């Protein structure tokens, strides 16, 4: 019989005490639940006298946003922990340390990042993170190169891929990102003031074709071990530090997907900026920073990925002149298309983003949704023809210009 049960705060404290050498035996530990409790329980356990703390995270067997009718495998906790261990080994400065865990209890114990801010919140507050593009570009390049056929033994890669088969969490992505927004699905969730825009998605066959091609890539292209859900709510930041968390959606998929997730979330914040910027000058400055950051994310990723390939890519055929350039072009185009799918899903699908949903002004909130959908459609439809990352800025700027016409 399984010993699994959802943790209480007392259970979390008891488990934290079992981590060898972390807390003193007689420490008076304080515990607070800090997660939203939708997919996981998250507890912060601290010894205030010694200024030591850690995080205990436990997976729940279903998605609370839907209810027990949406069961989820508890094996995702193992997948998340093993993905974090791999990512921390490859990028120790960009991923929290793992202190322990239990597969049967679906528990992971990790470094506390309380000194950091969730990036989504920071962007809403108007903060700039000038090291972020280099950090996240290096994280994606390093973790994906060394878990791909380019950077690891190809037979070992197959064995590793078998450990990250993640059907339940992949099913969420397959439905919510690559299918539901394009039809009248029960799980769709959008406000009535954009119903016309949402319904246009259901009849746009050009958009459906491109989304279908991207869906195929997600289903079939097991290129590298992805984070799988790399949005700005899964990134902790300070002005000097970036930490990537929550890879419970990790699986072997297309390299462009994680890049697309980051780009798409920066674009959602871009679309939301009229609701957060208190003057035209601030609006222009913030939007220019976001577009520059998007370009820099790609440029840092490409630089680090090519550098690793040149230095450590051992496959003879993959060194054929011209192959690397074609590969990188494909990754860029995939990333742009995936970014568009991510944007569209966050506007009309299940689970929205605070960047837009918490805008107080009704008109600004509605316009942000319309702008985001316009950007998303452009990226999905034009991704396969993109020649450079600079085109993303041009398409986003064009969509934003329509705001002034409609205002």
| Amount of helix | 40-55%
The secondary-structure element order is HEEEEEHEEEHHHHHHEEEEHHHHHH
**CATH architecture of the largest domain, please?**
Alpha-Beta Complex
- Principal-axes geometry comes out as globular
The count of β-strands is 12
Major sheet summary line: 5 strands, antiparallel
CATH domain topology of the largest domain: Aminoglycoside 3'-phosphotransferase, Chain: A, domain 2
- CATH superfamily label of the largest domain: Aminoglycoside phosphotransferase (APH), C-terminal lobe
Structural class: alpha+beta
Report the CATH C-level class of the largest domain: Alpha Beta
* Unreliable residue stretches: none
Strand order of the biggest β-sheet: 1-2-3-7-6
The tally of domains stands at 2
Q: How many helices?
A: 14
User: What does the radius of gyration come to?
Assistant: 21 Å
Instruction: Give the CA-CA distance, first to last residue.
Output: 62 Å
What would the average pLDDT be, to the nearest integer?
95
Q: DSSP strand (E) fraction? A: 5-15%
């Amino acid at each position: 019989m399984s010993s699994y049960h959802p943790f209480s705060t007392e259970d979390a404290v008891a488990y934290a005490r079992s981590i060898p050498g972390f807390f003193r035996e007689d420490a008076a530990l304080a515990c607070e639940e800090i997660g939203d409790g939708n997919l996981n329980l998250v507890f912060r356990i601290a010894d205030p006298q010694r200024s030591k703390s850690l995080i205990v995270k436990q997976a729940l067997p279903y998605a609370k946003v839907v209810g027990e009718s949406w069961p989820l495998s508890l094996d995702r906790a193992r997948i998340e922990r093993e993905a974090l261990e791999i990512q921390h080994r490859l990028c120790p400065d960009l991923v929290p340390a793992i202190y322990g865990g239990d597969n049967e209890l679906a528990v992971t114990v990790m470094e506390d990042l309380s000194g950091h801010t969730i990036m989504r919140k920071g962007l809403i507050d108007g903060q700039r993170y000038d090291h972020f593009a280099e950090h996240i570009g290096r994280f994606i390049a390093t973790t994906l190169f060394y878990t791909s056929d380019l950077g690891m033994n190809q037979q070992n890669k197959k064995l590793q891929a078998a450990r990250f088969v993640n059907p339940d969490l992949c099913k969420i992505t397959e439905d919510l990102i690559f299918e539901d927004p394009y039809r009248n699905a029960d799980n769709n969730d959008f406000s009535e003031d954009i119903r016309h825009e949402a319904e246009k998605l259901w009849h746009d066959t050009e958009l459906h074709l491109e989304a279908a091609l991207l869906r195929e890539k997600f289903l079939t292209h097991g290129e590298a071990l992805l984070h799988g859900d790399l949005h700005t709510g899964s990134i902790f930041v300070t002005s000097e530090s970036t930490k990537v968390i929550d890879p419970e959606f990790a699986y072997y998929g297309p390299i462009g997907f994680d890049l697309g997730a980051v780009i798409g979330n920066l674009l959602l914040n871009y679309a939301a900026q009229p609701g957060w910027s208190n003057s035209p000058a601030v609006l222009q400055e913030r939007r220019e920073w976001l577009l520059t950051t998007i370009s820099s994310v790609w440029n840092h990723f490409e630089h680090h990925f090519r550098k690793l390939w040149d230095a450590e890519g051992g496959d003879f055929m993959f060194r054929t002149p011209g192959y690397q350039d074609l590969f990188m072009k494909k990754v860029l185009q995939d990333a742009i298309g995936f970014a568009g799918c991510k944007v569209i899903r966050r506007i009309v699908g299940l689970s929205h983003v605070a960047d837009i949903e918490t805008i107080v002004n009704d008109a600004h909130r509605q316009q942000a949704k319309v702008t985001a959908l316009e950007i998303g459609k452009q990226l999905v439809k034009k991704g396969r023809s993109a020649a450079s990352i600079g085109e993303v800025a041009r398409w986003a700027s064009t969509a934003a210009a329509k705001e002034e016409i409609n205002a």
